[in-house]
Amino acid sequence: MVHVQSYVDHNTARINMVHGLLRPNQVVEERIVEAILTTPREKFLPKEVQNISYIDSDLSLGEGRFLMSPLTFSRLVQASMIQEDDVVLDIGCGMGYTTAILGKLASSVIGIDEKPEFFSNATEELSKLEILNCIFHYAHLKDGFPKGAPYSLIFLEGAVDFVPENILNQLAENGRLMAIVTINAYQAVARLYQRIGQHFAHRDLFDVNAKPLHGFQQLKEFKL
Description:
By secondary structure, this protein is an alpha/beta fold. Helices cover 23% and strands 29% of the residues.
């Protein structure tokens, strides 16, 4: 039997995703669109899923971790009101795709993960793309990365039941934190936090689905 390897034109798939999926769903900020058009998503995924890099689905990175769907991530980035002078912390950066996008939009980005093997090739890929304002660190996700604080923007890359106070405290004055917060078993919302002095205000923006980010789930009570 002859096995024929399927060929996918990733450039065309990327363009089709932007114009057929993102723009019709109101992802229209040109800086974000340009960042996505010029970043090869497939380079930041395991080989076994590279041929489906541009479908609108969370894609497995292995070990129970996922890269958010393109539409979900793009909407979160747009809603975060990211600025060119922002200092960003990307929590759960995985293989570095989201860090690369954020790096094209912000002043600097720190990506952290508990699985450094995920971003073993990320620095090389970012160098090829001439994105030189990003750095990756091993860290426990629930700790954030206080060495680089304060941050004007923090991203949580997956659905969480709660946002730890120690991470909120790493925000600069007027800094924002974007998270997908689980409301119940059937609903999660995009929630934007903002630091005002020692207090944190938040507002819910839209319903959204995403895979859980490990370590941010409430423990279930055991009842007899």
